[in-house]
Design goal:
Blueprint (H helix, E strand, L loop, with lengths): L7 E2 L4 E5 L5 E5 L1 H7 L2 E5 L6 E2 L4 E7 L3 E5 L3 E7 L1 H5 L3 H4 L7 E7 L7 H9 L2
Antiparallel strand pairs: 1-2, 2-3, 3-9, 4-6, 5-8, 6-7, 8-9
């Protein structure tokens, strides 16, 4: 399984990428999209919404079920990825490129797992 080393990971299988300007992108890991199956619909928050770590940031509907996506860090939604709303299948095709939201003023990034720790975590499942 390809686990990009530059990202941080949550126990709930979300990834976080810190961008050069300090905002963060959040998406679902390859493990998560594989477990979900074919994603057919995505529901995301609004720009300006304040989220805390552990809050539901949206949900994804697959052919199997509807699943909540949890926010792994706190912050304020600065951008929503409209492209995945139009093409939710991109989450299955390229999970580490199909980000859901961007947060500004993110808190808790350092509390997440690095790639090695996440790979070890996956080995326990």
């Amino acid at each position: 399984m390809n686990i990009p080393s530059e990202l941080k990971y949550s126990n709930d299988h979300e990834w976080v990428k810190v961008l050069p300007d300090g905002t963060v992108e959040i998406g679902l890991t390859d493990y998560a999209q594989d477990a979900l199956g074919d994603v057919v619909f995505v529901n995301l928050p609004e720009e300006g919404d304040a989220l805390s770590a552990g809050d539901v940031l949206g949900d994804v509907e697959s052919v199997k079920a509807v699943s909540d996506v949890l926010c792994p860090v706190g912050g304020t939604v600065s951008e929503v990825n409209e492209a995945i709303l139009d093409s939710p299948e991109s989450i299955n095709k390229a999970p580490y490129e199909a980000w859901f939201i961007r947060l500004k003023d993110a808190e808790g990034v350092d509390d997440l797992m690095d790639a090695a720790a996440y790979e070890e975590f996956l080995g326990t499942l």
